[in-house]
Amino acid sequence: MAHGARPGDSQRLILGVETSCDDTCAALVTDEGEVLSNVVSSQGLAHAPFGGVVPEVASRHHLELIDAVIADALARAGAGLDDVRRVAVTQGPGLIGALLVGVSAAKALAAARGLPLTPVDHLHGHVVASTLQPDPIDLPYLVLVASGGHTFLARVEEPGSYTVLGQTLDDAAGEAFDKGARLLGLPYPGGPELDRLAQTGDPDAFSFPRAAPGDGLDFSFSGLKTALLYRLRDEPDANRADLAASYQRAIVEALTSRVEQALEREGLDRLALGGGVAANSELRGSARAMGVSVAVPPVDLCTDNAAMIAAAARFLEPVAYPGYLELDAAARLS
Ligand code: KG4
Ligand code: ZN
Predict the structure, then answer these.
(1) Is the CB–ligand 1 distance for residue 279 below 6 Å?
(2) Looking at residue 3, what is its pLDDT?
(3) Does the CB atom of residue 119 touch ligand 1 within 6 A?
(4) Rounded to whole angstroms, how far apart are CA atoms 217 and 299?
(5) H helices of the chain, where?
(6) For atom 23 of ligand 1, which residue has the closest CA?
């Protein structure tokens, strides 16, 4: 029996479902934002031979896993479907075939039980991940979401919405980590590997561009990756750990310089990190050294998960049955 649940008590739970990329996720979260279960079935190994996510492979795996992942989330929460008061699902953005599996499963489950359904913007999920107990951040705050698919800065005044202040103009920060790692001969997904290798290298050994066009709050990482490519071509025997450390330093400084600018411009003194790149040891350390209050959710709430989708749904108006039967997954959301 999970914490917060008592035998015989009917609970008021939100079931979250997330299948926007290569992780099949389901979670049970209470109305108050307590996470009772957060199940992630990662497909990393299925995509590793291809060096990146293959959309068709992802859809097929979601289809095979989704029922078992939802059942596991209920079991781990010590709950049954009778305890679920509403269903929340990632509507987009993401891989359309992957999203469709989650949206169809969530619609079918909600319709069969006559429950309301809340369509959730995946990015909103990352934005509110830091509001989940036990360590919720106070409003208003600045959030940096940096993952393999997205990198943006947003101001959060109310948990039901967010205002994007800047975003990447090309690659996401996680993509820059993964592509750099690949150039350095590290296995996919390379971000964590590059992080590890960088800890043994000298971040000042090589100079890389700081990827900050103009004085707005946008990011750009494609030039950095090209710089690493040229460096390896010109100096094939360059020390790999020094290269990793210098390359990581450039990504982290590109992120933190924008964060500092945004905190100053917006007059904010609270920062939350989200997305898989928030697991990066140097980024975490640099954020904590900024002199503002910093909320970094545990790694399993930073990377893609369904608890953050259920958490976002707490602050959104649900759609009653049968209004959501027309709901479609959307690869892009406005
Ligand atoms: O949020 P996430 O799990 O999935 C997406 O929505 O993309 O983020 C995955 C990304 C990958 O690019 C991965 O390499 C990166 O986060 N990542 C890291 C670290 N751990 C994960 N990047 C740098 N350092 C890490 N320790
Ligand atoms: Zn994500």
Answers:
(1) yes
(2) 46
(3) no
(4) 25
(5) 44-47, 55-76, 96-113, 122-128, 173-183, 190-198, 222-234, 240-266, 281-288, 299-302, 307-313
(6) 191
Distance CA 261, CA 117 (A): 38
What is the residue with the minimal CA distance to atom 22 of ligand 1? 191
Predicted local confidence at residue 135, as pLDDT = 72
| Tokens at 112, concatenated | 């069969």
Ligand 1 centroid, distance to 3 Cα (angstroms): 29
Residue 30 sits at φ, ψ, to 5 deg, of: -80, 165
- Beta-sheet pairing, 117-121 with 84-92: parallel
Using the structure block, give the residue that is written with the tokens 């914490």.
3
Alpha carbon distance 191, 162 (integer Å): 27
Which token pair is 127?
Answer: 């934005």
Q: What is the pTM of this model?
A: 0.91
Give the pLDDT of residue 58: 82
DSSP string covering 305-330, please? -SHHHHHHHTTSPPBPTTGGGG----
Q: How far apart are CA 224 and CA 34, in angstroms?
A: 40
Please state, in angstroms and rounded to a whole number, the distance separating the CA atoms of residues 56 and 54: 6
Helical pair 55-76 and 96-113, crossing angle rounded to 10 deg: 30
Q: Which residues of the chain have pLDDT under 50?
A: 1-8
